[in-house]
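Helix-turn-helix domain-containing protein structure dump, as promised
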Amino acid sequence: MKIVTLTLDQFQEELDVRFSQMLQALRHTLPPTTEAEYLTTKQALDFIHLSKPTLNKLRREGRITAYNSSDKRVLYKRSQLAAYLEAAQQKGGKAIC
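structure tokens r here:
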């Protein structure tokens, strides 16, 4: 076993190098971050480019499902909004079918 003596600055530099290597290795092994599955009303409006009254109408008509969170926010499932947009495009490009 080899004993090495380091100054505090050398030790800190060695730690920085090792942590940098570990973080770089982790970045290559972790899956890419995915977007949030549930969107707030504002995020949903930005995602589907509709007005709030139109989104509320779609929700009332049952075309888009809204979920209530524990903090009383209304949330929308990103995948469902994307499916709605895709269906609307197939029916002629109008967002409100």
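Strands lie at 38-40, 66-68, 74-77.
lmk if u need the other ones
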